[in-house]
């Protein structure tokens, strides 16, 4: 079977399953967040935590709850890592160093799951499920809560601008969506051979006759929510390339489906909640165009005419698992960078310059194709407002979206949200390259003029794009264990996560306080092929104008060599 045919069959299967799940999953999530009934277990949690589930919050209260909950989560996870050596199931592991503990706590709370450590030799089998896996659930639920609050801003008309109750949205997203879905996925992964054990490991004899210790962990349960919640942090260092995390081509497809399921289905949730499902389909079309285009580029780069010849000799398979081949690798890489997942089943550093540039561009587009759990949808909705504003300027009309006028306040908040990520990526990359002693910018040869310096720049750019977009994947050739990287990337994760959330929630409150206006003859239609093209062009134009010089210095220059 040729790589093109194998890729076509895998893509067709993934799209078919997503098409079947799209309506029931999307409508189910809409019912979860619109329901007025509380499950008994939810009511018990509300009483224990002294939460009034019937109280509505303004955007100030909602944002304060998000920030307070996330700050408490960072402190708890940091403390757990620092004292893990005196806790059960720690084996011979000691507490994590302060810099790594800070970076990891921020990483998992912000849904980034950037890992600057080897999980097998750093985190205990208690820290993994009690600390990291819990954050896999709640950080994903936070993202979904924020996008639901934004949707309510379009739907509701409230003088006080109330947009819901964060604690109710967080609880429902965790208990009604993420927990049952991840349980089913974990069972499927177990059937494929993914391990689930609290034993620290076992000894075996390697091919060279030496004794080898193989790490064990409760992998299946964490692997499921790692992909479903678009988290990405592997419980083993090789992540989804490890045979204990991703043993078969079937498990590979299941993990790709888990990554895409909720972000894709949320567009249906959006359409159902606003009462116009064509709006959701329009956003889905934009996501699909971008995802499909970058997948085609990555596949062509890794298995083109030169690539096929090299594959026969084994060269193009460097950094790729033979269990999955180039098609399974490209499909996973584009899906994981198009969302905020960051899981990898190959070494992205080993991709061709064009292939590596494509997955890097996938993040620089804002991770909206289809984006992370919740974050992708509110990201593309913000860009949709920018597109409507641009379209309004072209025809000389006051821009409106879903019956809400886009005034100076709304456009300012949307612009600020869009500008956060580029500022963090470019400023962080620039400072790091200046401090070249802390980076691999000089390349393997150590000569700043060597070809390796171009790839070193790409590694730094990729690292800050990954952190600022809360993705978590990396070009593996970059060493990020220094205090500079631990701190700089940690701050990028924090600002890249919470500044857009604050702007989005402020936008939701501003929209909710408006009255709805009826669409007139001059109102720009926001559903259909015309707006699909306008929004796609806006996404590409914003990224191209912002990042083309940086891409030209890195992946483009390397590809042209």
From TrEMBL:
Its main location: membrane. Signal peptide: none annotated. Pfam families: KdpA. Keywords: Cell membrane, Ion transport, Membrane, Potassium, Potassium transport, Transmembrane, Transmembrane helix, Transport. It is a multi-pass membrane protein. It is found in: Cell membrane. It comes from the Bacteria. The chain crosses the membrane at residues 59-80, 130-155, 175-195, 281-301, 377-399, 411-435, 488-512, 533-557. The system is composed of three essential subunits: KdpA, KdpB and KdpC. Belongs to the KdpA family. PANTHER family: POTASSIUM-TRANSPORTING ATPASE A CHAIN, POTASSIUM-TRANSPORTING ATPASE POTASSIUM-BINDING SUBUNIT. NCBIfam families: kdpA. Part of the high-affinity ATP-driven potassium transport (or Kdp) system, which catalyzes the hydrolysis of ATP coupled with the electrogenic transport of potassium into the cytoplasm. This subunit binds the extracellular potassium ions and delivers the ions to the membrane domain of KdpB through an intramembrane tunnel. This is Potassium-transporting ATPase potassium-binding subunit. It comes from Rhodococcus tibetensis.
